[in-house]
């Protein structure tokens, strides 16, 4: 009985430490992102993706944000699309996806993403107004 209890406590401690390590890693990514170290944040996200596949959708979202800041809009749109495929929908994902498509001059895809952003009550009208203005 003691051994069972010892094993149970050990497993609990290890899983808690693992969760804290993941939280620390995500906190590091956030800190890197907010300090403008987008390339380093992308490298950290790649490491996280290998070690925490269950967080893949959120990792793709943050990769998309980093790629957008680096003006790598093709990679940004791919990352946002992968996040959506993993059923991760942070508030601004459709707006960011629309921005990435717009920067690539993919106006129909941008319009579609901006429409979804508007439908989710995020930055209502801004993206659509931009696309409509430049199409004329």
How would you summarize what this structure contains?
Helices cover about 80% and strands about 0% of the residues.
Describe the protein's architecture and organization.
This protein has about 140 residues and is mainly α. The chain has seven helices and no strands. The longest helix is centred in the first third of the chain and has 33 residues, at about 1-35. It is globular.
Mean pLDDT: 80
> What are the segments in which pLDDT stays under 50 over at least 5 consecutive residues?
3-23
Radius of gyration: 19 Å
Element-level helix/strand string: HHHHHHH
Strand content: under 5%
| Helix residue percentage | over 70%
What general outline do the C-alpha atoms trace? globular
Count of DSSP-assigned helices: 7
Quick one: how many beta strands? 0
Q: Give the distance, in angstroms, between the N- and C-terminal Cα atoms.
A: 76 Å
Structural class: mainly alpha
Largest pleated sheet: none
């Amino acid at each position: 009985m003691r051994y069972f209890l010892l094993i149970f406590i050990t497993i609990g401690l290890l899983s808690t430490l693992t969760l804290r390590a993941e939280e620390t890693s995500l906190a590091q990514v956030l800190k890197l992102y907010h300090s403008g170290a987008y390339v380093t944040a992308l490298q950290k996200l790649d490491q996280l993706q290998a070690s925490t596949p269950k967080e893949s959708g959120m990792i793709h979202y943050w990769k998309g944000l980093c790629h957008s800041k680096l003006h790598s809009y093709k990679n940004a749109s791919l990352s946002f699309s992968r996040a959506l495929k993993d059923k991760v929908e942070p508030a601004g994902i459709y707006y960011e996806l629309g921005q990435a498509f717009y920067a690539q001059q993919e106006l129909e895809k941008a319009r579609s993403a901006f429409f979804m952003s508007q439908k989710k009550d995020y930055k209502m009208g801004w993206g659509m107004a931009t696309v409509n203005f430049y199409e004329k």
